[in-house]
Amino acid sequence: MNADDRDETYRDFDDAVNMTPAVLEKWLDSEDSTAVGQKTAGGESTGHASGRRIVGLLRTKKADLADADLALMRKVVGYVHRHLAQRPSGDVTETPWRYSLMNWATTRCANAFARS
């Protein structure tokens, strides 16, 4: 991946993700976090597993990001944009839709758990 593509991916990820690693880890430890998402064989949901990987991305220096990291960052950005476009009507404060977004490290739909 060339430098321009890396920079664009990094910027897009930074725009989509607005939780700090510590706040995301705390959220991922919650019952609400583990209760939502698509699970395979009764295990961890895709979003929850991605959240754990996002913690690592947030703690990685930009210069140290591998191509696989950047691919995951693009996946996160795509998920966040698609999920936001499917926002249900009404109050989403305590909904699986919002909790799923939070597993992917964004609180774009609410201010709780936002990056300070």
Give an overview in words.
The protein is mainly alpha-helical. It has 6 helices and no strands. The longest helix is centred in the middle third of the chain and has 19 residues, at 67-85. The model is unreliable at 110-116 (pLDDT under 50).
Cα radius of gyration in angstroms: 14 Å
Distance between the termini: 31 Å
**Proportion of β residues?**
under 5%
Quote the average pLDDT: 89
Please tally the helical runs, counting DSSP H or I stretches of 4 or more residues.
6
Low-confidence stretches: 110-116
In N-to-C order, the SSE pattern is: HHHHHH
Main sheet properties: none
The helix-and-strand class reads: mainly alpha
Broad shape: globular
State the helicity in percent bands: 55-70%
The count of DSSP E runs of length 2 or more, i.e. the number of strands, is 0
